[in-house]
Every structure is written in structure tokens, then in C-alpha cells.
Amino acid sequence: MTDKKTEITSPKLGKISYRDDDLITLTSPLLGFAELSDYLIISNTDYFPFLWLQSVEDPSVCFILIEPEPFFKDYKPKVNKRELKVMGVKELSELKMFCIVVIPDDPKKATANLRAPIIVNFERKLAKQAVLEDETWDIRAPLFPGKG
Q1: CB atoms inside a 10 Å sphere around CB 20
Q2: CATH code assigned at 121
Q3: Is residue 148 part of a domain?
């Protein structure tokens, strides 16, 4: 473990200091971001319940995340065994799940991608976007139904 800190400047979050052991490595890249694999998951009480998935390789790349449970009570996706094996676990309960959020000009119309959650093994510092085979989960599920 190292105490050496690295600093990046994110256009959205400003200066961020981190240690190598803070990094989460994607086992396969996010669609459209093939060259990026190292990210930080940043929580900030000012933005609760939203979190940030911040690339350290390209500070201009930053995604908004949520934990799906508070917004989607019935969200119980089935992640295939192959995905779990890649993440080094036997059960989905061993992972933390997040969904990427898109917030348009009207925040009341924000949506979450329930079809391709980000699954994270914090113990092994690995993450993956799991594209679900179950088509019942929406790519643009409204975060605030009836508000837009």
C-alpha cells in the first residue's frame, strides 16, 4: 500500500487527490470508452444520493451513478455466472451495483440505465458493466416518474 497521492483535475469535480489503492479497474471497457480502464468512485454528501465514476486516465470523462434500490424497489436483475466469475465472486450479493444516470437540462427527466448496471467488487478493486439479457429492464428508466 502506498501513501503517494496523484492528482487530477476534473472539469466537473475540480481537483481530486487519490492513491493507487483507491482505483477501481474495469475488467472490460465501457461502451464508447475502450481506452479507459481506471476509475474512482466518488461520493460526496453535497450530491447524495448521486455518486461519480471518474476516469483518472481522461479527467473529462465522468459518469453520474446511483445505487438503484432507493429509486427502483423491484430492481432484482439476474447477472449471468460468467459475469460473476470475471468479478471473482460466486453470488451477486458479494458485489455492489450502480446504475449510470443521465441528467438532461430538465433534471426531473433524469433516467437510469437499468439494463447495463456497473457491478463492483470493492475487495478486489474490479468493476464491470454487466449487460443484462433480460429485456424487462429499461435503458432509460425515469428516476422521477410523473415529474417530467
Answers
A1: 14
A2: 2.30.290.10
A3: no
Helix/strand/coil for 120? strand
DSSP 3-state percent helix, strand, coil across the chain (nearest 5):
10, 35, 55
Question: What's the number of domains the chain is made of?
Answer: 1
Question: DSSP assignment of 54-73, as one string?
Answer: EESSSTT-EEEEE-STTT-T
Q: pLDDT of 42-74, one tens digit each?
A: 998 888 899 999 999 999 999 999 999 999 999
Q: Has this prediction a pTM greater than 0.85? A: yes
Q: Grid cell 435503458 — which residue? A: 139
Chain centroid offset of residue 147 CA: 24
- Cβ neighbours of residue 4 closer than 8 Å, sequence gap 6 or more: 19, 20
Cα separation, 82 vs 29, in Å, equals 16
